[in-house]
């Protein structure tokens, strides 16, 4: 059979925009495709929530691909390795409570298991703003404002479109890009000690790993922070190429949102 290029185009267009249309109203929108965001996506999708993940870059995975300094091995601790074993990743004991895993295998597997669980992935999409509404006297996030990353990179003045969501997970990492936009554009107070973004501190892996999980919480009505965005929002340290806290952060935020949506029904 001769290949028909028009049918190829039609197939891509039809399926992509059907997927996009089905995601106009979400239970959860995740911004950032690193390990915490992908872990949260898988767990929530497995629980039956309608989840989509938006990643600015062409590839997802955040910094996990490169391990440490492009040496593509990651390290996790005893208490977090179950999140790799749940997706059938081979985890190797190194010493004491430290375990290693191939970074490329981990990144691709976290992505594929989230997708196969039902998460809809939209790469090359930038989240440039959020939607705010006043509900019962309280301002709350009700959606995200998205545009094509090539439009953003080119600096073109092209208007964005909107996706509704019950909850937004800010998982953009060190830069807390969506949270910074919220603070910059609106007269609001965050659920942080100063009411603003506290900022990330220098490396202290032991404290940072614990705080990545502790700081995973609702930072503003309708918006949660997880992964390194949680530490940057609440003023804790960076941890470098150890990923246990990132995975546990994704698990924590997923379970909290699952419970909240279940209680609202």
Outline the structure in words.
By secondary structure, the chain is of the alpha/beta class. It has a single domain, classed as FAD/NAD(P)-binding domain. It is 38% helix and 28% strand. It contains 9 helices and 13 strands. The strands form 3 sheets. Strands 1, 2, 6, 7, 8, 9, 11 and 12 form an 8-stranded mixed β-sheet that branches. A 3-stranded antiparallel β-sheet has the order 3-5-4. The chain has a two-stranded parallel sheet with strand order 10-13.
Mean pLDDT: 97
Cα shape: globular
Poorly predicted segments: none
CATH class: Alpha Beta
Summarize the main sheet.
Answer: 8 strands, mixed
Task: Note the beta-strand portion.
Answer: 25-35%
Cα-to-Cα separation, first versus last residue: 52 Å
Label this structure with key terms:
single chain, 265 residues, alpha/beta, FAD/NAD(P)-binding domain, three-stranded antiparallel sheet, 13 strands, 38% helix
Can you give me a brief rundown of this structure?
With 265 residues, the chain is an alpha/beta fold.
Q: How are the secondary structure elements laid out?
A:
Blueprint: H1 5-22, E1 25-31, H2 35-46, E2 51-55, E3 73-77, H3 82-85, E4 92-95, E5 98-102, H4 103-117, E6 120-123, E7 125-135, E8 138-148, H5 149-154, E9 161-170, H6 177-185, E10 201-203, H7 205-214, E11 217-220, E12 223-225, H8 228-234, E13 237-238, H9 244-264
Parallel strand pairs: 1-2, 1-9, 2-6, 9-12, 10-13
Antiparallel strand pairs: 3-5, 4-5, 7-8, 8-9, 11-12
